[in-house]
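User: Earlier you gave me the apo prediction for this protein. Now I'd like the version with S-adenosylmethionine bound, so I can compare the two side by side. Same sequence as before, with the ligand SMILES added.
Assistant: Got it. Here's the input I'm using:
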Amino acid sequence: MPMDHAHRLCRLGGFLAEHRAFWQPSAFVDPELDWQRTQPALWHYLQSLTDADVASLEADPELLATQLSPWIDGLDSALAWISVPRLDSAQGQTDTSHHDRLSTGVPGRKWQQIRSFAARVPSTPQDIHKAPLLEWCAGKGHLGRWLAAIRDQKVVGLEWDKALCEAGNQLSVQHRMACHLAFQDVLAPEAADWIARSGQVVALHACGELHERLLVLACSQGTPSLSLSPCCYHRRSGDLYRPYSIVGRERDLGLTRRELRLCVQETVTAGRRVRRLRDIEVAWRLGFDALQRELREQDEYLPLPSLPKVLLSGAFDTFCHWAAQCKGLGLSQQLDLSGYEARGWQRLQALRRQELVAHLFRRFIELWVVLDRVCYLQEAGYQVELGTFCDRLLTPRNLMINARLGSGRR
Ligand SMILES: C[S@@+](CC[C@H](N)C(=O)[O-])C[C@H]1O[C@@H](n2cnc3c(N)ncnc32)[C@H](O)[C@@H]1O
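And here is the structure of the complex with S-adenosylmethionine:
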Protein backbone atom coordinates (compact mmCIF):
# COMPACT_ATOMS: atom_id res chain seq x y z
CA MET A 1 0.00 0.00 0.00
CA PRO A 2 1.47 3.45 -0.88
CA MET A 3 2.51 5.52 2.11
CA ASP A 4 0.32 8.57 2.75
CA HIS A 5 1.84 12.04 2.54
CA ALA A 6 1.83 12.77 6.29
CA HIS A 7 3.46 9.45 7.10
CA ARG A 8 6.08 10.02 4.44
CA LEU A 9 6.80 13.52 5.79
CA CYS A 10 7.38 12.04 9.27
CA ARG A 11 9.67 9.26 8.02
CA LEU A 12 11.68 11.68 5.90
CA GLY A 13 11.95 14.12 8.80
CA GLY A 14 13.30 11.34 11.04
CA PHE A 15 15.85 10.29 8.42
CA LEU A 16 17.04 13.87 7.84
CA ALA A 17 17.29 14.57 11.57
CA GLU A 18 19.28 11.39 12.13
CA HIS A 19 21.78 12.30 9.41
CA ARG A 20 21.94 16.04 10.05
CA ALA A 21 25.74 15.91 10.41
CA PHE A 22 26.03 14.99 6.73
CA TRP A 23 23.99 17.82 5.22
CA GLN A 24 23.86 20.68 7.70
CA PRO A 25 27.46 21.86 8.21
CA SER A 26 28.98 23.81 5.35
CA ALA A 27 32.42 22.81 4.11
CA PHE A 28 32.85 26.44 3.11
CA VAL A 29 32.60 27.56 6.72
CA ASP A 30 34.31 24.57 8.30
CA PRO A 31 37.14 23.16 6.14
CA GLU A 32 37.08 19.86 8.03
CA LEU A 33 33.66 18.41 8.77
CA ASP A 34 32.87 16.20 11.76
CA TRP A 35 31.83 13.23 9.61
CA GLN A 36 35.32 13.16 8.06
CA ARG A 37 36.61 12.21 11.52
CA THR A 38 33.77 9.87 12.49
CA GLN A 39 33.57 8.17 9.06
CA PRO A 40 37.20 8.02 7.88
CA ALA A 41 36.45 5.20 5.43
CA LEU A 42 33.86 7.36 3.66
CA TRP A 43 36.29 10.27 3.41
CA HIS A 44 39.01 7.92 2.20
CA TYR A 45 36.68 6.64 -0.55
CA LEU A 46 35.78 10.21 -1.63
CA GLN A 47 39.43 11.24 -1.75
CA SER A 48 40.19 8.29 -4.01
CA LEU A 49 37.78 9.59 -6.68
CA THR A 50 39.11 11.22 -9.83
CA ASP A 51 37.64 14.53 -10.99
CA ALA A 52 35.76 12.62 -13.70
CA ASP A 53 34.27 10.27 -11.04
CA VAL A 54 33.17 13.30 -9.03
CA ALA A 55 31.54 14.86 -12.10
CA SER A 56 29.66 11.60 -12.86
CA LEU A 57 28.39 11.35 -9.29
CA GLU A 58 27.36 15.02 -9.29
CA ALA A 59 25.35 14.40 -12.46
CA ASP A 60 23.66 11.18 -11.36
CA PRO A 61 21.83 11.17 -7.99
CA GLU A 62 20.97 7.45 -8.29
CA LEU A 63 24.59 6.46 -8.82
CA LEU A 64 25.61 8.74 -5.92
CA ALA A 65 23.11 7.00 -3.65
CA THR A 66 24.34 3.55 -4.68
CA GLN A 67 27.96 4.49 -4.07
CA LEU A 68 27.40 6.15 -0.69
CA SER A 69 24.81 3.74 0.71
CA PRO A 70 27.37 1.60 2.64
CA TRP A 71 28.03 4.60 4.89
CA ILE A 72 24.53 6.06 5.29
CA ASP A 73 22.29 4.01 7.60
CA GLY A 74 18.78 3.47 6.31
CA LEU A 75 19.46 5.10 2.92
CA ASP A 76 18.07 2.22 0.87
CA SER A 77 14.62 2.33 2.46
CA ALA A 78 14.62 6.14 2.61
CA LEU A 79 15.01 6.27 -1.18
CA ALA A 80 11.47 4.90 -1.47
CA TRP A 81 10.13 7.97 0.37
CA ILE A 82 11.52 10.37 -2.23
CA SER A 83 10.30 8.40 -5.19
CA VAL A 84 7.29 10.13 -6.75
CA PRO A 85 5.30 9.00 -9.78
CA ARG A 86 5.02 10.87 -13.08
CA LEU A 87 1.62 12.56 -13.09
CA ASP A 88 -0.72 11.42 -15.84
CA SER A 89 -1.32 13.81 -18.66
CA ALA A 90 -4.84 15.22 -18.32
CA GLN A 91 -4.88 16.39 -21.91
CA GLY A 92 -5.79 13.20 -23.75
CA GLN A 93 -5.11 12.86 -27.44
CA THR A 94 -6.35 16.29 -28.58
CA ASP A 95 -4.36 17.69 -31.49
CA THR A 96 -2.84 21.00 -30.41
CA SER A 97 -0.42 21.45 -33.30
CA HIS A 98 -2.35 24.44 -34.67
CA HIS A 99 -1.32 26.34 -31.51
CA ASP A 100 2.39 25.65 -31.95
CA ARG A 101 2.99 29.23 -33.15
CA LEU A 102 2.68 30.26 -29.47
CA SER A 103 6.16 28.85 -28.90
CA THR A 104 7.79 31.58 -31.02
CA GLY A 105 10.38 33.41 -28.95
CA VAL A 106 10.17 31.02 -25.98
CA PRO A 107 13.43 29.18 -25.20
CA GLY A 108 13.07 25.49 -26.20
CA ARG A 109 13.58 24.04 -22.75
CA LYS A 110 11.11 26.48 -21.16
CA TRP A 111 8.54 25.66 -23.83
CA GLN A 112 8.81 21.93 -23.15
CA GLN A 113 8.37 22.58 -19.42
CA ILE A 114 5.27 24.66 -20.13
CA ARG A 115 3.78 21.96 -22.36
CA SER A 116 4.45 19.19 -19.83
CA PHE A 117 3.12 21.22 -16.92
CA ALA A 118 0.00 22.40 -18.80
CA ALA A 119 -0.79 18.82 -19.84
CA ARG A 120 -1.08 17.90 -16.17
CA VAL A 121 -3.28 20.78 -15.03
CA PRO A 122 -6.61 19.04 -14.34
CA SER A 123 -9.66 20.10 -16.24
CA THR A 124 -12.24 21.83 -14.11
CA PRO A 125 -16.01 21.55 -13.74
CA GLN A 126 -18.03 23.83 -15.98
CA ASP A 127 -18.94 26.32 -13.24
CA ILE A 128 -15.27 26.89 -12.39
CA HIS A 129 -14.32 26.97 -16.07
CA LYS A 130 -16.38 30.13 -16.58
CA ALA A 131 -14.19 32.11 -14.16
CA PRO A 132 -10.79 33.12 -15.53
CA LEU A 133 -7.94 30.79 -14.73
CA LEU A 134 -5.31 32.67 -12.71
CA GLU A 135 -1.59 32.33 -13.41
CA TRP A 136 0.56 33.32 -10.43
CA CYS A 137 3.92 35.04 -11.20
CA ALA A 138 3.35 34.70 -14.89
CA GLY A 139 6.44 36.29 -16.44
CA LYS A 140 5.37 37.01 -20.04
CA GLY A 141 2.42 34.65 -19.59
CA HIS A 142 3.61 31.92 -21.98
CA LEU A 143 1.97 29.23 -19.84
CA GLY A 144 -1.24 31.25 -19.55
CA ARG A 145 -1.47 31.77 -23.32
CA TRP A 146 -0.93 28.07 -23.93
CA LEU A 147 -3.63 27.15 -21.41
CA ALA A 148 -5.98 29.75 -22.90
CA ALA A 149 -5.44 28.16 -26.31
CA ILE A 150 -5.76 24.48 -25.47
CA ARG A 151 -8.63 24.89 -22.99
CA ASP A 152 -10.45 27.71 -24.71
CA GLN A 153 -10.58 29.53 -21.40
CA LYS A 154 -9.88 33.09 -20.26
CA VAL A 155 -6.63 33.46 -18.34
CA VAL A 156 -5.37 36.29 -16.16
CA GLY A 157 -1.72 36.36 -15.15
CA LEU A 158 -0.23 38.29 -12.24
CA GLU A 159 3.24 39.73 -12.67
CA TRP A 160 5.04 42.60 -10.99
CA ASP A 161 7.50 43.40 -13.75
CA LYS A 162 5.85 46.03 -15.94
CA ALA A 163 8.03 45.31 -18.98
CA LEU A 164 7.10 41.60 -18.84
CA CYS A 165 3.40 42.49 -18.54
CA GLU A 166 3.58 44.78 -21.57
CA ALA A 167 5.55 42.29 -23.68
CA GLY A 168 3.18 39.46 -22.69
CA ASN A 169 0.04 41.50 -23.41
CA GLN A 170 1.40 42.40 -26.84
CA LEU A 171 1.92 38.70 -27.57
CA SER A 172 -1.64 37.93 -26.47
CA VAL A 173 -2.99 40.58 -28.86
CA GLN A 174 -0.74 39.35 -31.66
CA HIS A 175 -1.90 35.74 -31.20
CA ARG A 176 -5.51 36.75 -30.41
CA MET A 177 -5.47 34.91 -27.11
CA ALA A 178 -7.80 35.62 -24.19
CA CYS A 179 -4.91 36.02 -21.81
CA HIS A 180 -4.23 39.26 -19.97
CA LEU A 181 -1.34 40.08 -17.66
CA ALA A 182 -2.17 42.31 -14.73
CA PHE A 183 0.58 44.35 -13.11
CA GLN A 184 0.41 43.07 -9.54
CA ASP A 185 2.78 42.36 -6.67
CA VAL A 186 1.52 39.00 -5.39
CA LEU A 187 2.77 39.79 -1.89
CA ALA A 188 0.58 42.92 -1.71
CA PRO A 189 -2.83 42.68 0.02
CA GLU A 190 -4.77 43.15 -3.27
CA ALA A 191 -3.43 39.82 -4.54
CA ALA A 192 -6.07 38.17 -2.33
CA ASP A 193 -8.85 39.74 -4.46
CA TRP A 194 -7.53 38.02 -7.59
CA ILE A 195 -7.59 34.66 -5.82
CA ALA A 196 -11.14 35.29 -4.61
CA ARG A 197 -12.30 35.86 -8.21
CA SER A 198 -10.69 32.72 -9.58
CA GLY A 199 -11.73 29.09 -9.47
CA GLN A 200 -8.41 27.66 -10.53
CA VAL A 201 -4.85 28.89 -10.03
CA VAL A 202 -1.66 27.67 -11.69
CA ALA A 203 1.92 28.56 -10.78
CA LEU A 204 4.93 27.24 -12.65
CA HIS A 205 8.21 27.85 -10.86
CA ALA A 206 7.05 30.61 -8.56
CA CYS A 207 9.88 31.16 -6.08
CA GLY A 208 9.81 30.48 -2.30
CA GLU A 209 7.61 32.98 -0.56
CA LEU A 210 5.68 33.74 -3.75
CA HIS A 211 4.16 30.26 -3.95
CA GLU A 212 3.92 30.08 -0.15
CA ARG A 213 1.73 33.18 -0.29
CA LEU A 214 -0.42 31.50 -2.93
CA LEU A 215 -0.86 28.46 -0.69
CA VAL A 216 -1.88 30.53 2.31
CA LEU A 217 -4.37 32.64 0.32
CA ALA A 218 -5.83 29.64 -1.51
CA CYS A 219 -6.29 27.67 1.72
CA SER A 220 -7.87 30.58 3.57
CA GLN A 221 -10.24 31.39 0.70
CA GLY A 222 -10.99 27.84 -0.40
CA THR A 223 -9.83 28.13 -4.01
CA PRO A 224 -11.35 25.09 -5.73
CA SER A 225 -8.32 23.99 -7.76
CA LEU A 226 -4.60 24.63 -7.55
CA SER A 227 -1.66 23.37 -9.64
CA LEU A 228 1.83 24.38 -8.75
CA SER A 229 5.43 23.53 -9.32
CA PRO A 230 7.51 25.06 -6.53
CA CYS A 231 11.09 26.28 -6.89
CA CYS A 232 13.78 28.43 -5.19
CA TYR A 233 12.59 27.52 -1.68
CA HIS A 234 15.31 29.79 -0.22
CA ARG A 235 13.96 32.99 -1.81
CA ARG A 236 12.10 34.25 1.20
CA SER A 237 12.38 36.79 3.97
CA GLY A 238 13.53 35.38 7.29
CA ASP A 239 16.39 32.94 7.65
CA LEU A 240 14.46 30.13 9.31
CA TYR A 241 11.86 28.00 7.53
CA ARG A 242 8.70 27.58 9.57
CA PRO A 243 6.68 24.59 8.36
CA TYR A 244 3.12 25.29 7.24
CA SER A 245 1.51 21.97 8.11
CA ILE A 246 0.70 20.79 11.62
CA VAL A 247 2.55 17.53 10.97
CA GLY A 248 5.59 19.45 9.67
CA ARG A 249 5.62 21.78 12.69
CA GLU A 250 5.52 18.79 15.04
CA ARG A 251 8.79 17.59 13.51
CA ASP A 252 10.35 20.90 12.51
CA LEU A 253 13.88 20.43 11.16
CA GLY A 254 14.73 24.11 11.68
CA LEU A 255 15.88 24.47 8.06
CA THR A 256 17.78 27.64 7.26
CA ARG A 257 17.90 29.52 3.99
CA ARG A 258 21.30 27.98 3.22
CA GLU A 259 19.89 24.47 3.58
CA LEU A 260 16.89 25.37 1.43
CA ARG A 261 19.26 26.67 -1.21
CA LEU A 262 21.11 23.35 -1.10
CA CYS A 263 18.17 21.59 -2.70
CA VAL A 264 18.11 23.83 -5.77
CA GLN A 265 21.84 23.86 -6.42
CA GLU A 266 21.81 21.10 -8.97
CA THR A 267 23.09 22.31 -12.33
CA VAL A 268 21.84 19.80 -14.88
CA THR A 269 21.02 22.67 -17.20
CA ALA A 270 24.27 24.66 -16.80
CA GLY A 271 26.64 24.75 -19.77
CA ARG A 272 30.40 24.15 -19.68
CA ARG A 273 31.24 27.90 -19.51
CA VAL A 274 28.87 28.49 -16.59
CA ARG A 275 30.37 25.53 -14.72
CA ARG A 276 33.91 26.78 -15.37
CA LEU A 277 33.05 30.29 -14.10
CA ARG A 278 31.44 28.77 -11.03
CA ASP A 279 34.59 26.75 -10.32
CA ILE A 280 36.73 29.89 -10.62
CA GLU A 281 34.42 31.79 -8.28
CA VAL A 282 34.41 29.04 -5.64
CA ALA A 283 38.20 28.49 -5.85
CA TRP A 284 38.83 32.23 -5.52
CA ARG A 285 36.44 32.58 -2.62
CA LEU A 286 38.21 29.69 -0.89
CA GLY A 287 41.60 31.23 -1.67
CA PHE A 288 40.50 34.53 -0.18
CA ASP A 289 39.10 32.63 2.82
CA ALA A 290 42.57 31.20 3.51
CA LEU A 291 44.05 34.69 3.18
CA GLN A 292 41.53 36.44 5.43
CA ARG A 293 41.90 33.80 8.18
CA GLU A 294 45.63 34.66 8.27
CA LEU A 295 45.21 38.41 7.96
CA ARG A 296 42.67 38.55 10.77
CA GLU A 297 44.41 35.86 12.78
CA GLN A 298 41.02 34.28 13.29
CA ASP A 299 40.16 30.80 12.09
CA GLU A 300 36.66 31.84 11.14
CA TYR A 301 34.74 32.10 7.86
CA LEU A 302 33.89 35.60 6.64
CA PRO A 303 30.99 35.65 4.18
CA LEU A 304 31.43 37.78 1.07
CA PRO A 305 28.59 39.43 -0.85
CA SER A 306 27.78 38.31 -4.39
CA LEU A 307 30.45 39.60 -6.70
CA PRO A 308 30.36 41.55 -9.97
CA LYS A 309 30.74 38.68 -12.46
CA VAL A 310 33.16 40.74 -14.58
CA LEU A 311 35.75 40.15 -11.83
CA LEU A 312 35.88 36.47 -12.80
CA SER A 313 37.43 37.26 -16.17
CA GLY A 314 40.19 39.26 -14.44
CA ALA A 315 42.91 38.14 -12.04
CA PHE A 316 42.79 36.56 -8.57
CA ASP A 317 44.70 39.57 -7.14
CA THR A 318 42.01 42.02 -8.30
CA PHE A 319 39.35 39.77 -6.78
CA CYS A 320 41.22 39.70 -3.43
CA HIS A 321 41.55 43.49 -3.35
CA TRP A 322 37.80 43.80 -4.08
CA ALA A 323 36.98 41.26 -1.33
CA ALA A 324 39.35 42.88 1.19
CA GLN A 325 37.79 46.27 0.52
CA CYS A 326 34.28 44.82 1.03
CA LYS A 327 35.34 43.56 4.43
CA GLY A 328 37.39 46.61 5.44
CA LEU A 329 40.67 44.63 5.50
CA GLY A 330 43.96 46.34 4.61
CA LEU A 331 45.78 44.44 1.83
CA SER A 332 49.16 45.57 0.56
CA GLN A 333 49.51 45.83 -3.25
CA GLN A 334 52.96 44.20 -2.88
CA LEU A 335 51.73 40.98 -1.24
CA ASP A 336 52.26 37.88 -3.42
CA LEU A 337 48.83 36.21 -3.54
CA SER A 338 49.63 33.31 -5.89
CA GLY A 339 50.02 30.84 -3.01
CA TYR A 340 46.49 31.65 -1.79
CA GLU A 341 45.07 31.10 -5.25
CA ALA A 342 46.74 27.66 -5.35
CA ARG A 343 45.27 26.87 -1.92
CA GLY A 344 41.85 27.92 -3.19
CA TRP A 345 42.03 25.45 -6.08
CA GLN A 346 43.25 22.75 -3.73
CA ARG A 347 40.39 23.38 -1.33
CA LEU A 348 37.94 23.29 -4.24
CA GLN A 349 39.05 19.70 -4.92
CA ALA A 350 38.30 18.73 -1.32
CA LEU A 351 35.09 20.76 -1.20
CA ARG A 352 33.61 19.03 -4.26
CA ARG A 353 34.18 15.67 -2.57
CA GLN A 354 32.80 16.84 0.78
CA GLU A 355 29.75 18.32 -0.93
CA LEU A 356 28.90 15.04 -2.65
CA VAL A 357 27.71 13.82 0.73
CA ALA A 358 25.53 16.88 1.38
CA HIS A 359 24.20 16.67 -2.19
CA LEU A 360 22.93 13.17 -1.55
CA PHE A 361 20.39 14.74 0.81
CA ARG A 362 19.16 17.47 -1.57
CA ARG A 363 16.13 15.63 -2.90
CA PHE A 364 15.27 14.46 0.64
CA ILE A 365 15.18 18.06 1.87
CA GLU A 366 13.19 19.18 -1.17
CA LEU A 367 10.63 16.40 -0.72
CA TRP A 368 10.32 17.23 2.97
CA VAL A 369 9.57 20.88 2.18
CA VAL A 370 7.17 19.99 -0.64
CA LEU A 371 5.38 17.40 1.49
CA ASP A 372 4.96 20.10 4.12
CA ARG A 373 3.02 22.08 1.48
CA VAL A 374 1.05 18.97 0.50
CA CYS A 375 0.08 18.25 4.12
CA TYR A 376 -0.86 21.89 4.69
CA LEU A 377 -3.25 21.67 1.74
CA GLN A 378 -4.67 18.37 3.01
CA GLU A 379 -5.20 19.85 6.47
CA ALA A 380 -7.18 22.65 4.75
CA GLY A 381 -9.49 20.10 3.09
CA TYR A 382 -7.79 19.50 -0.27
CA GLN A 383 -7.30 16.21 -2.06
CA VAL A 384 -3.73 16.37 -3.19
CA GLU A 385 -1.71 14.57 -5.81
CA LEU A 386 2.07 14.92 -5.84
CA GLY A 387 4.21 13.80 -8.75
CA THR A 388 6.62 14.94 -11.43
CA PHE A 389 5.54 16.72 -14.58
CA CYS A 390 8.73 16.14 -16.59
CA ASP A 391 12.11 14.46 -16.56
CA ARG A 392 14.74 15.95 -14.23
CA LEU A 393 17.03 16.59 -17.20
CA LEU A 394 14.44 19.05 -18.54
CA THR A 395 14.38 20.75 -15.15
CA PRO A 396 15.35 19.36 -11.74
CA ARG A 397 12.45 21.43 -10.33
CA ASN A 398 10.03 18.92 -11.76
CA LEU A 399 7.68 18.36 -8.80
CA MET A 400 4.05 19.30 -9.25
CA ILE A 401 1.24 19.56 -6.74
CA ASN A 402 -2.35 19.22 -7.96
CA ALA A 403 -4.87 20.08 -5.26
CA ARG A 404 -8.63 19.99 -5.52
CA LEU A 405 -10.85 21.18 -2.69
CA GLY A 406 -12.85 18.32 -1.24
CA SER A 407 -16.64 18.59 -1.39
CA GLY A 408 -16.77 18.95 2.41
CA ARG A 409 -15.17 22.43 2.27
CA ARG A 410 -16.91 24.00 -0.71
C1 LIG B 1 10.97 32.12 -12.09
S1 LIG B 1 9.92 33.25 -12.89
C2 LIG B 1 8.63 32.19 -13.45
C3 LIG B 1 7.86 32.80 -14.57
C4 LIG B 1 6.92 31.83 -15.28
N1 LIG B 1 5.94 31.30 -14.38
C5 LIG B 1 7.69 30.73 -15.96
O1 LIG B 1 7.71 29.62 -15.51
O2 LIG B 1 8.33 31.04 -16.96
C6 LIG B 1 9.17 34.10 -11.56
C7 LIG B 1 8.38 35.33 -11.99
O3 LIG B 1 7.83 35.91 -10.81
C8 LIG B 1 7.88 37.31 -10.94
N2 LIG B 1 7.79 37.89 -9.60
C9 LIG B 1 8.78 37.95 -8.67
N3 LIG B 1 8.32 38.53 -7.55
C10 LIG B 1 7.02 38.86 -7.78
C11 LIG B 1 6.01 39.49 -7.00
N4 LIG B 1 6.26 39.89 -5.75
N5 LIG B 1 4.81 39.65 -7.54
C12 LIG B 1 4.54 39.22 -8.81
N6 LIG B 1 5.46 38.62 -9.60
C13 LIG B 1 6.69 38.45 -9.09
C14 LIG B 1 9.18 37.57 -11.66
O4 LIG B 1 9.21 38.85 -12.25
C15 LIG B 1 9.21 36.42 -12.66
O5 LIG B 1 8.58 36.79 -13.86
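For your comparison, keep in mind: The mean pLDDT is 93.
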